[in-house]
Amino acid sequence: MGPRNMAQGSSQKPEFFVNPEFITTKTRAIADRKRENTPVPRFTALVPRGHTVPVLNKNTLVESPDGSYRDGPSTHGTDRFERRRADIVAAAIPVLNDQGFKGMRLTAVAELIGLRATGVTYYFPRKEELAVACIESGFAVLDGLVAEAEREPDAGARITQLIALFTARDAAVRQGEAVPLASFSAIRSLEGEHRDRAVEGYKAMFRRVRALLESPELAAMDQTDRTIRAIILLEQLFWAASWLCDFDIEDYPRLAARMADIVLNGVAPGAIADPIPSLTAPARPLASRDESKESFLKAATRQINEHGYRGASVDRISASLNLTKGAFYHHNEAKDDLVAACFRRSFTIMRETQIEARALAAPEACRLAATVEALIRFQLGPEGPLLRTSVLSSMPVEHKTEILGHSYRISRQFASMVVDAITDGSARAVDPMVAGAMVHAAINIAADARPLAMAQAPDIVARFVRPIFAGFLAA
């Protein structure tokens, strides 16, 4: 199952460009517009020579017999039927990203394209089917991006092109010329056969990204190292959308090049040449910690990371602690307040770790490495993990603003450490703002390795730290 694969080295380039009337985050209502097949001008200013940017096209997104979505001519039904399905998927993606699966309402999706809710259920009888269609449309887009990257001769060039193409597509989304990717974190809220289908699609996409690192010059790299690098690479791409919006679109090619440089060559290879100093901040009790409250925070963090913000119900959190729902409300006024407290706990742990590292008598890059090592160890250890930032998308506005502020401050602190490391000569000359965000992203994604068998390897923390500082191409 999953998106259609395009043959490596094929002369047929993917053409997924959209029509101007296609729903985006800037212009969502298309009910009264004419549906003309006028192509959007290509985004050539941001695309490497000889490449195109795969973008979800409503006229070519169709359902395969196995239920997955792919780019290509319709295999059943009328073109009008398929276009309407694609319109619904395009309208649903921003709603899914903003509200999460549990919060997505078919009536809200229907209003965006001038339908009644029954009109949506005609094409997607269940909300789960619409959510999976949104997620699989993202797999199809990434499939096209990776197919373009696969044309490059070696791992470094392939990764560089993937970053450039993904960044160019993000610019197209920002200009209203493409539909946003559905947040894959929605998979966590699905259950049963729909979750299984989405998970299998994600695995197929992940394996193809990981295969970009299969190159003769990296023959000494084992499967675990490639897996870790693929995990980090995908998170860097998804995380970039949160900070690229702080820059002008004209800066995107330069930023993509700086991202690729950091991914391939690392922030400070010399910082891990010697043993990294150990820190106690993540493991030691937080100031004025209440033990019962701390138990709720850890349980809630794990449930939210696994099931998403809306999927981690009060019942689930309580059951993980062998408590009743009534006992939950005895300790917590509301679930939203508990989730906000989980974020504050995570940011406090990160900030205290940064502060302890700054007191080390060592070059700044070594302090940065000690911070990253301690936080990744916490992510994979018994007291972890930290709360995933992808939860933010479906949180109430009153909490989202505060938490985003905390997250930006953490990234800025990492950027400040990078500046100091460049100044004292212990780090490479990299873009500190980009590096700070990328370090934060790498720490954030480490929690995803917790359920994997490789998380039990004694050197798993070092394996995560190495590509951040020495780069993906370091054996």
Describe the structure.
With 475 residues, the chain is an all-alpha fold. The chain has 2 domains: 44-219, Tetracycline Repressor, domain 2 (Orthogonal Bundle); 269-470, Orthogonal Bundle (Tetracycline Repressor, domain 2), CATH 1.10.357.10. It contains 16 helices and 2 strands. The chain has a two-stranded antiparallel sheet with strand order 1-2. Helix 2 crosses helix 3 (117-123) and helix 14 packs across helix 15 (432-445). The two termini are 33 Å apart. Residues 1-76 have low confidence and may be disordered.
Short description:
By secondary structure, the protein is mostly helical. It has helices spanning 79-103, 106-112, 117-123, 127-149, 155-174, 192-210, 223-244, 252-265, 291-307, 314-320, 325-331, 335-358, 364-380, 397-423, 432-445, 460-470; strands at 61-63, 69-71.
Q: How are the SSEs placed, and which strands pair?
A:
Blueprint: E1 61-63, E2 69-71, H1 79-103, H2 106-112, H3 117-123, H4 127-149, H5 155-174, H6 192-210, H7 223-244, H8 252-265, H9 291-307, H10 314-320, H11 325-331, H12 335-358, H13 364-380, H14 397-423, H15 432-445, H16 460-470
Antiparallel strand pairs: 1-2
Helix pairs in contact: 1-2, 1-4, 2-3, 4-5, 4-6, 5-8, 6-7, 7-15, 8-16, 9-10, 9-12, 12-13, 12-14, 13-14, 13-16, 14-15
